[in-house]
Specification:
By secondary structure, the chain is an all-alpha fold. It is 74% helix and 0% strand.
């Protein structure tokens, strides 16, 4: 179960990163004065050559489909193992609810992909983004529980939960900001404003873990928060080049998952 949970998390990271690549492969408006440039309609420039090359897009789309299908298969196997454990001795290793939630979410995302293939509608964009990031976070959380990660004090667990919500909001606002501009949208300004809360919050949480048994995760979270600030700053200064934006997106998903893992501890028999 622990290996399957880790496989699900890694596969979902591939899915989320591939989705970001495919979004950024489309032509995007220039952005020399971010964030105002994303709040007004402008003509699109050609897509970034590396991301938009037909061979790259085809490969990434195939990887996305294979990884998404593999996640669903892994979750079905996990559910079968849980059912077997329940029948045998009434124990499910404390991961029944997360696994069922992940499976339902994966099925919902599959249905959304079938119902609206290639859609760039706002509801579809946000559904895919938040659904994918949440599934990744749940998979990582399950892996940490099954790996008997030391339980943090309640205050730190609550701080990590708040960090998950802050970074999920940042994740959604960032992608919304990079989508085709809508006249008068506040998403870019909200993304910038929330960065002054989400990044310091994660950095402070990581620093607070220095005296706990999970200090390595704290250092990783501090590094992620610092990297996000640098990437965001460079992306804004350099007219939002797609490779930097893609990396910014991928690390945001990793930050959501890492903080979700900090919000839990060792699994308890249920």
């Amino acid at each position: 179960m622990q290996r399957l949970a880790l496989a699900a998390a890694l596969l979902m990271f591939v899915v989320v990163s591939a989705s970001a690549w495919l979004r950024l492969a489309a032509p995007r408006p220039p952005c020399t004065d971010w964030p105002p440039c994303r709040a007004a309609a402008q003509a699109s420039l050609p897509a970034w050559p590396v991301l938009a090359a037909p061979a790259s897009v085809g490969t990434v789309r195939a990887v996305h489909r294979v990884a998404a299908s593999a996640v669903l298969l892994v979750l079905l196997v996990m559910l079968a193992l849980i059912v077997h454990a329940l029948r045998r001795d009434g124990a499910s290793a404390g991961v029944s609810v997360p696994v069922v939630a992940m499976l339902l979410l994966a099925l919902a995302l599959s249905a959304l992909g079938i119902a609206a293939p290639g859609s760039r509608a706002s509801a579809v964009l946000l559904g895919n983004l938040l659904g994918g990031a949440t599934l990744l976070a749940l998979a990582w959380l399950s892996w940490r529980r099954l790996g008997h990660a030391p339980r943090l004090p309640r205050g730190l667990r609550r701080a990590a939960g708040t960090g998950v919500l802050l970074w999920l909001a940042q994740f959604a606002l960032g992608a919304w900001s990079g989508s085709p501009p809508r006249e008068g949208t506040m998403a870019p300004m909200l993304h910038l404003a929330l960065a002054f809360v989400a990044a310091p919050w994660a950095f402070a949480l990581g620093a607070a873990l220095h005296s706990t048994a999970r200090r390595a995760e704290g250092r990783a979270l501090m590094s992620l928060a610092a990297a996000q600030v640098l990437l965001g700053g460079f992306a804004a200064a350099l007219a939002a080049p797609a490779p930097l934006v893609w990396l910014h997106n991928a690390l945001a998903a990793a930050g959501v998952a890492l903080q979700a893992g900090l919000a839990t501890g060792s699994a308890e028999p249920s």
